Amino acid sequence: MRSVRARAAIGATLVVAVALVAAGLAVLLVLRDNLIDQADLQAEVAAREVAGQLALDTAYEDLDLDDEEDHPVQVTDEEGRVVFVSKGLQAVSGTRSPGVSPVPSASVGAAPSPGDDDDDDDDDDDDRRPGRGEVSSDDPDFSDGTATVNGKHADYRFAAVEATTPAGLTLTVHAGAPLAAEQEAVGTVRGAMLTGLPLLLAVVAAVTWLVTRRALRPVEGIRREMAAITASEDLARRVPEPGSRDEIAALARTTNETLTVLEASVERQRRFVADASHELRSPIASLRTQLEVAEAHPELLDLPGAVADTVRLQVLAADLLLLARLDAGEKPGAARVEVGALVREEVSQRAGDRVPVTVEVPEGGAFEVDGSRGQLARVVGNLLDNAQRHTEGRVAVSVAADGSGVRVEVRDDGAGVPEDERERIFERFVRLDDARSRDDGGAGLGLAIARDVATRHGGTLTVHRAPEGGAAFRLWLPRAA
Asked: Does an H or E element contain 399, and which?
């Protein structure tokens, strides 16, 4: 079953059905027990009333009985023989004896035989029987049975009470109370439950279906819109957000946020591909032109220019490859890097720079960070390249402790970076001086690569105004643990 609405409706219906059946059974049991207790009380009252008359030596024919149809009475002696039955009792079951015809026995009021006292003293059951002229105070024995009174057969609840006549004859009185009221009440309640339970379950199922359908309606809208976005590939579209503050509204907002990030990522990729294609076109076209000229006129071959274009193409390809790896989420290494030594080494390898670089690293300082030595060297190199490109006559790099990290600052005395452009210069393929030649200005990837590497190392890269008047790029990296 694939429908959430159907599963919810069936699940709720089953839970309610189990709960109602359990509750119904409990109600029926409690009702039946209460009605049986009432029947027991009626039977006990009737039995004790007859037993009390027998204990007072009332003759059988003089017994004052209640409604004999509702409370049939059977009296048996010590040997289980029936000595008296109420008028109209034609058959009985569930008592000590099924007989309904009295048999000759010692009559009530007869004088005790000379040996009666001795027999009573020797009988082991004497201490459990009531004394002469008394009714047993113990709880009566109850039993279920049937009786036919005046041709009407019904179920009864019988109570057995013992009584001893003044003559010493112990009799057991069985008096019944009808169970018709109990059976009728239980049957009525059971019938009402059997009739109402399906109707109630149908209502529960219908209500659950409707409520679930209404609750899931926004989900269907989200699904349709996502299907339309997938079919059209238009990431500018958004799913509808319901006005509620429930989980479905949160799902819609999260989906739209995901679409926004995805749209920005795709747009960034498209821009990257377009800019990369544009940047690669110039050195490739220049190199091709030089090779074609050299093929036709070997004496006109500009070998240094061809080498320069090849180097530029190689550097650009390396930059694009590094950016692709960074975008793919490549994590930096976990090597321990001493930033001061890294800066000195990088500067020492740049003997051919047009402006000498001043290095300021405190002696004895420990400036260790965790990360990739190659990537961090690339960051320092890109910052130095940028400074060499814009300086007038001075480039300085310094290393210092900064809170819980290490700060590397590269300064120049050039024109600086306008304040409103200080974030834009870290975008890919961005050049602030569009008039300068591509050969002098680079491809616009160095600062973008530097910031991406710094971010992946848990650091930051920002630009400020240097004391010399130019730009000051500050690289901050967290100190190694």
From this structure: strand 395-402
Give tens-digit pLDDT for 164-173: 999 889 999 9
What pLDDT, on a 0 to 100 scale, did the predictor assign at position 34?
92
Answer whether residue 116 shows pLDDT above 60.
no
Report yes or no on 311 lying in a domain: yes
Q: Are residues 429 and 337 in the same domain?
A: yes
CA distance 219 to 357: 62
Q: Last residue of a domain, which of 131, 153, 185? A: 185
445 band by pLDDT with thresholds 50, 70 and 90: confident
At 288 the pLDDT is 84
Domain boundary (185, 216, 232) is at 185
Angle at 457 between CA 452 and CA 462, to 5 degrees: 55
Residue 91 belongs to a domain: yes
Residue 34 and residue 118 share a domain:
yes
Strands of the 471-478 sheet, one edge to the other: 357-360, 395-402, 405-412, 471-478, 460-465
Give burial (CB, 10 Å; 0-12/13-18/19+) of 375. Answer: buried
Distance CA 128, CA 132 (A): 13
Measured between its terminal Cα atoms, the distance across the chain in Å is 55
| Domain total in the chain | 3
CA–CA dist 95, 81 (Å, integer): 12
Give yes or no: residues 368 and 348 share one domain.
yes
CATH number at residue 257: 1.10.287.130
Model pLDDT for residues 59-92, shown as the tens digit of each residue? 888 888 877 778 899 999 988 899 999 988 889 9
The pTM of the full predicted model, rounded to 2 decimals, is: 0.50
Q: CA–CA distance from 258 to each of 57, 224, 226, 261 (Å)? A: 99, 17, 12, 5
Range of the domain at 383: 331-478
Kindly state whether residues 271 and 345 are assigned to the same domain.
no
Q: What is the pLDDT of residues 185-216, one digit of tens each?
A: 888 998 988 888 899 989 988 998 888 888 88
Judged against a pLDDT cut of 60, whether residue 6 lies above it is answered with: yes
Count of beta carbons in the 10 Å neighbourhood of residue 199: 9
- 17 and 83 share one domain: yes
- Does the residue 215 lie in any domain? no
pLDDT digits (tens, 9 = 90+) for 455-469: 999 999 999 999 888
Handedness of CA 316, 318, 320, 326 (dihedral sign): negative
In a domain, 229, yes or no: no
